[in-house]
Design a protein that fits this description.
By secondary structure, the chain is of the alpha+beta class. It has a domain of about 200 residues: FAD/NAD(P)-binding domain (3-Layer(bba) Sandwich), CATH 3.50.50. Helices cover about 35% and strands about 20% of the residues. It contains twelve helices and 21 strands. It has a seven-stranded mixed β-sheet with strand order 5-4-14-15-16-13-17. The chain has a six-stranded mixed β-sheet with strand order 7-2-1-11-20-19. A hairpin with a 2-residue loop joins strand 8 and strand 9. The chain is globular, with a radius of gyration of 22 Å. The structure holds flavin-adenine dinucleotide. The site of flavin-adenine dinucleotide has 36 residues, from helix 1, strand 2 and helix 7.
Length: about 450
C-alpha cells in the first residue's frame, strides 16, 4: 500500500493572523494537519476592527465559510469608505470605484452620500454586502472579540487542533525548525506571535523614517443614534484619530500618534479636550512600523504583526494577512521543488508592504490642515516617496493630468491593493486644486 504523508503545519499564535492562517490553510489544503499553539498568558493585541474593500470577498473565497453565519454571529457594519477630515477640505474615500461614475461636475466627491439613514447592521447592510448575488463583498467594521470568537469556533469545527502552551525553545538546523519546546514537530511553522515574532530572527526593515507614529490610545464611546457605515480619520495635533461605529452599541476611537512629538499624557489630554469628557477606560498600544526583509525563510513563514505592520490608517493588516496566507497556501499546495516561488513570494510581499507604506505616507505629507511641528515636519517627508514606486508615478500623473484615466494600466497591477482609484481619491482630497498641484509639481522638480 502506498502511504502518502500528510502535510503538518504548526501555527504559533491565535490572534487574527493565527486563526485566519489556520483556516485558510485548512480550506486550501484540506488534508493538511493544522495545529495552533498559543500562550494562554499572552493576550492577543485586541485591535483590528476596520477592513478594506476586498475583505468580505477574500473571507468568502479564502476561508470557504458560510458568510450568512458570519454576518449573524459577528454583526459587522458595512463600511463604504473613509470620511477624511484631513487637509483643507473634508473628503470621502469610497470603496465603490468612484471614478467609474464620474459626474460632469468633477469637483464633487463621487458615490458617497449616506448621511440620510442608518446603514449599520440592518437588512439593507446585508443586502449591500452580498449585492443580491449570494456573494458577499465589500469592507466592514467588526468587533475584534466577536470576530476572533467566530474564527476560533470555525477552526474547531474544521478539526484544527488547539494547544495552550508557551513556546520557550526552538530546535533548529540552519534555516529549518525541527521542533518547538522539544516536542512540537511539523513540516512548516507559521509565526503569528504578534510583534514579538518568536520564531523568526530575520532582519527588520523599519518604516519609522517615513511613518513616525508608534503609539495609539484606544477607547470606546457610546455610538450616536445612527451607525455610520464608514470609518472616520481625523487630523490631531501629532497624529490622527479613527472613529469606527459598531452594531454592538459602541464606537471604537483611537488616537494614533508619535512619541517623538507628544507624550501619552499630552495625547490623552488632547483627546479629553476634543471629546469634552474624562477618559478613564482606555488602552495604550505601542507598535512599530516596518516589515521583515524576507517573510518565508526555510520552513518558517511570518504572518500578521510578526511579519510587518504599516499603520492603522487604511486598515490594511487583515487584508495583508489574508493575501499572505492565500499565497503561502498556494505555494505549499503547488510545491516549490525546483522553482523560485519562495523568492518571488518574498519579493511580492515586500512590494505589497512598501506600496501600502507609500499610500499611507501621502495621507500625511499633503495634509496641511494643522500647523503643528508634527505636520510641518510631515510636509517635508514627501522625499521619502520612492521615485520608482507606484505612489510617485500616480502623483506625477495626477499633478500633470488630473484624474483622466489614460495610459495608466501599469498602476493596476495586483501589487497595488488600492487601485488607481484609491490613489486618485487621496490626491484629489488632499491636493484639490490645480493651483495646489502646480505648486507641488514645481517643488518636486
Ligand atoms: C493601533 C492599532 C490599530 C489597528 N487597527 C487595525 C484595523 O483597523 N484593521 C486591521 O486590519 N488591522 C489593524 N491593526 C493590526 C492588527 O493588530 C492586526 O490586524 C491583527 O490583530 C494581527 O495580530 P496578530 O494576530 O499578528 O498578533 P496578536 O493579536 O498579538 O496575537 C499574538 C498571538 O501569539 C501568541 N504568542 C505570543 N508569544 C507566544 C509564545 N511564546 N508561545 C505561544 N504563543 C505565543 C499570543 O498568545 C497570541 O495568541 C491595528 C494595529 C494597531 C497597533
Amino acid at each position: 500500500m502506498l502511504l502518502i504523508k500528510r502535510m503538518n503545519v504548526t501555527v504559533v499564535g491565535a490572534g487574527s493572523a493565527g486563526l485566519l492562517s489556520a483556516l485558510v490553510l485548512k480550506h486550501k489544503i484540506p488534508n493538511c494537519i493544522v495545529t495552533v499553539i498559543r500562550d494562554p498568558n499572552e493576550p492577543v493585541i485586541g485591535v483590528g476592527e476596520a477592513t478594506v474593500g476586498s475583505f468580505m470577498k477574500m473571507l468568502n473565497e479564502d476561508l470557504g465559510l458560510n458568510m450568512d453565519y458570519f454576518v449573524e454571529k459577528v454583526k459587522p457594519v458595512i463600511k463604504y469608505g473613509v470620511l477624511y477630515e484631513f487637509g483643507k477640505n473634508d473628503f470621502h474615500y469610497t470603496f465603490d470605484n468612484a471614478f467609474d461614475f464620474q459626474s460632469n461636475d468633477k469637483s464633487l466627491p463621487q458615490g458617497f452620500d449616506f448621511e440620510g439613514g442608518n446603514y449599520g447592521y440592518t437588512e439593507y447592510s446585508k443586502i449591500m454586502m452580498n449585492k443580491g448575488k449570494g456573494e458577499y463583498s465589500g469592507a466592514v467594521h467588526v468587533d475584534n472579540k466577536l470576530f476572533l470568537e467566530y474564527l476560533e469556533n470555525m477552526a474547531l469545527e474544521k478539526n484544527i487542533i488547539f494547544i495552550d502552551d508557551k513556546i520557550e525553545s526552538i530546535q533548529k538546523k540552519d534555516d529549518i525548525i525541527i521542533s518547538l519546546n522539544d516536542k512540537y514537530y511539523a513540516d512548516y511553522f507559521i509565526d503569528c506571535s504578534g510583534f514579538k515574532s518568536i520564531l523568526s530572527d530575520e532582519k527588520y526593515v523599519s518604516y519609522s523614517d517615513s511613518l513616525v507614529n508608534d503609539r495609539a490610545i484606544f477607547f470606546r464611546t457610546k455610538t450616536k443614534e445612527k451607525i455610520r457605515p464608514y470609518s472616520h480619520a481625523i487630523t490631531m495635533n501629532s497624529g490622527w484619530l479613527w472613529v469606527v461605529d459598531h452594531s454592538q452599541g459602541y464606537s471604537g476611537n483611537g488616537y494614533v500618534f508619535s512619541s517623538k512629538y507628544i507624550t501619552d499624557e499630552e495625547a490623552l489630554k488632547e483627546l479629553e479636550e476634543k471629546y469634552k469628557m474624562k477618559i478613564k477606560d482606555y488602552k495604550t498600544i505601542p507598535f512599530k512600523t516596518g516589515r521583515k526583509e524576507r517573510h518565508w525563510v526555510g520552513n518558517v513563514i511570518t504572518i500578521g504583526n510578526a511579519d510587518g505592520f504599516v499603520e492603522p490608517l487604511e486598515a490594511t493588516s487583515l487584508m495583508t494577512i489574508l493575501q499572505s496566507i492565500r499565497l503561502t497556501s498556494t505555494v505549499l499546495e503547488y510545491g516549490d521543488k525546483k522553482g523560485d516561488l519562495i523568492e518571488r513570494y518574498n519579493k511580492f510581499i515586500n512590494e505589497l508592504y512598501d506600496t501600502i507604506r507609500d499610500f499611507i505616507l501621502i495621507h500625511f505629507c499633503f495634509n496641511d490642515r494643522l500647523d503643528t511641528i508634527y505636520w510641518r515636519d510631515y510636509l517635508k517627508r514627501i522625499d521619502k516617496l520612492p521615485k520608482d514606486g507606484i505612489g510617485y508615478g500616480v502623483l506625477d500623473y495626477y499633478l500633470k493630468n488630473n484624474t483622466h484615466i489614460l495610459f495608466t494600466n501599469k498602476y493596476y497591477e495586483d501589487i497595488n491593493p488600492f487601485s488607481l482609484d484609491g490613489w486618485f481619491q487621496m490626491y484629489r482630497g488632499l491636493i484639490p486644486t490645480e493651483k495646489d498641484r502646480k505648486k507641488i509639481l514645481e517643488g518636486l522638480k
